[in-house]
Every structure is written in structure tokens, then in C-alpha cells.
Amino acid sequence: MNPVETGRGLAVVTGASTGIGYELAKCAAQEGYDLAIAADEPRIQEAAMRLKEFGVEVQAMQVDLATRDGVRRFCEGIAALGRPIDLLMANAGVGLGHGFLDEDLDEAQRVVDTNITGTIRLVHDLGNRMRTRGQGRILFTGSIAGFMPGAFQAVYNGTKAFINSFSFALRNELKATGVTVTCLMPGPTDTEFFERADLMDTSVGQGSKDDPAYVAKLGFKAMMDGEGDVVAGWKNKIMSAAANVTPAGMLAEQHRKMAEPGSGNAN
């Protein structure tokens, strides 16, 4: 990344090549923020070209944030810009379908390394810079999946339960520092997530989904307003509220009906 000083604020967005992450980056660009974006695929450069059309500077890095080295390289790249970080949107995440014992263990571990380990490493580094400055806003992309024991998505839902909980804890820890923390909790969203997670033959994979642009706008506004959390969509609000009073075994069975392979073929 090359040092650029424009007088504008800087927003950092991970998982920004497509989906919610790209739309979050677009929200920031539309508000006049320069961008430092990352994803683990070459399409991050294509995303950068589109985002530059908003008249902002965009620094893009293809880097694997599931690895210690990938997080280090991205953080060093941001440091090389020599600019304070105004917004951090920790959105990078991957999913994985099928029963846990039928999954490739390395793939399951990658879900943990991306969604949890890489995320907390990144936020520990950049969050410390924000706290030292006494200013900044952090947005985590959690999920309503974090409220449900995820039968046939056990590892993924577990990681999102961690992120949801972690964000609320970190928000409390930073409440007197000038740094705010917000958790965006979407439901099923129309992104490449379900294809990548091998969930296309499931009820949830074939069901209706929210527009990622709509989800991102809600999350971005909540972050800018300093809110603690936002659930995207009224159906998801009802589901998340119901999850708080429904026995875990019943929630797991409900999730099984949505995520079990072949469930999308049922009448």
C-alpha cells in the first residue's frame, strides 16, 4: 500500500470483494472516506476499481486473513499509509455446510481461523490504534445465526455466536475511550456465501434472502450512529427475539430443517 494523504477519513473493510463487505465499502466511499480493503481473492482489485469511481483513494490487498501472516501484512500495509483509522468494518467470513463429522476438518478449521482468529487479531491491532487516538468506530459482521445452535452449520454458527458476544463485550470495555463498537446481525443475504459453503441444496440456500446493499446500509448507519447492534429485516428481528426464549434443542431442530443437505428439495 502506498502512502496517500487526502485530508479525508480512512475506512478499513475486510471481505470487501463482494457481498456485504463490498457494499459496506461502497457506503463509506459514498460518504467520502478513502478505503483500505482486503479479501483473499483477486477480485478485490476489481472491487477497488469500481470503488474509485466515487472519487476516493482505494488501497486494496489480496491477503488471507485466516493466517497470522496475512493479518500482519494487512496491518503493516495500513500502517504504511501513515493515516489514522476512522472506521474499521471487520466483515471477512466464510461458512461451511453439512454435518460436522462429515466435513473436512481443515475446512472447518479455516472457518474458525477466518471468522474468529483473524478477526480478533486484526481488531486487536487496529483497535489499539483507535484507542490511542481516542476516536474511531468498529463494525463487526455477526449474524442471527449466532443465536441458534447450527445443526449442519455447527462450526459457522458457533463462530458467529462468538462474534456477537465478543462485540458486546468489547463495546463495554471501550465505552469511555471514544471508540464505538457495533454488531451487524444479518439473516440470509443474497451473496455468494451459500454457494461457497455448499448450501445450495438446502432450504436456507434456496429460500428468499435480503439484498446485501440494504443490509450494509443498515449496518453502516448503526455504526455511524454509535449503536450497539442492528438486526437486518423484520423477519430476522422476530427470529432473533424468539431465539432468546426458545429451548436450545428446539432451535437446533429448527435449524436442521433449514440447513440439512437435501432439505431444499422437500415439498
From TrEMBL:
Oxidoreductase in keyword set: yes
Keywords: Oxidoreductase
Signal peptide: none
Residue ranges occupied by any Ketoreductase domain in the UniProt entry: 9-191
SUPFAM superfamilies: NAD(P)-binding Rossmann-fold domains
Pfam families, sorted: adh_short
InterPro entries, A to Z: KR_dom (IPR057326), NAD(P)-bd_dom_sf (IPR036291), Sc_DH/Rdtase_CS (IPR020904), SDR_fam (IPR002347)
UniProt record similarity statement: Belongs to the short-chain dehydrogenases/reductases (SDR) family.
Protein name: Oxidoreductase
Organism: Pseudorhizobium endolithicum
